Amino acid sequence: MKKIIILTLVALLIYIPLSAQQEGAKAPADVKGSKTQEPASKQDTKKSLEEERLGIVKADIQKELEQLRKLKKEIEELQKLFEQKVEQKEVEYLAQIAKIYESMQPEEAARRLERLDDDTAVTIIVTLKPKTAGRILAQIEEARAATLSKKILARTKVKQEKPTP
Q1: Is 118 a domain residue?
Q2: 67 is a domain residue
Q3: Which residue has the higher pLDDT, 156 or 106?
Q4: pTM
Q5: Binning pLDDT at 50, 70 and 90, where does residue 16 land?
């Protein structure tokens, strides 16, 4: 008799959870079905809200793009101004160096220029007054003076061919 009662209880324990699972499985299916069958006006409202949100986001992005463009333009202008100032300082320093070489005796200036690389020497010589440059070049060893003269001519041609802004 105990066995029958135990088997009955076990059967009830198994049956009750199974029936509850079947009812639970039906309920979500009903809920899902009701969601897909929303009224058209509710779907239109959701769609218009989504479009409105997208419009707002698009407008925000456009504003940020415009701000970035303005910043880029401002940075470019500042960069040009900086480059102009750097170039101006370079010209000032070169003029100072030229004055220093002009104040030297030609022999002393020639000895110093001979120790410099060709490009630096040419840059300095081109900056000097022609008469001073000639006196200094006359004191430089002939082969080096010829090389520097050729480079001076090449640089002069480049400047003449360069279009003026």
Answers
A1: yes
A2: yes
A3: 106
A4: 0.52
A5: low
Q: Can you give the residue range of the structural domain that contains 135?
A: 60-160
Residue 19 lies in a domain: no
Burial of 51 (0-12, 13-18, 19+ CB in 10 A): exposed
User: Looking at the 3D structure of the chain, how many domains does it have?
Assistant: 1
- Domain assignment present for 113: yes
The beta strands (E) that lie in the chain are given as none
For residue 113, pLDDT beyond 80: yes
Q: Which H helix or E strand runs over 104?
A: none
100-108: long-range pairs with CB below 8 Å, 24+ = 101/128, 101/132, 101/136, 102/128, 102/129, 102/132, 106/132, 106/135, 106/136, 106/138, 106/139, 107/139
HSE (CB half, 13 Å, CA atoms) of 63? 6
Q: Output the CA–CA distances (angstroms, integers) from residue 54 to 48, 50, 59, 142, in the order listed.
A: 10, 6, 9, 77
* Rounded Cα gap, residues 10 and 34, in angstroms: 37
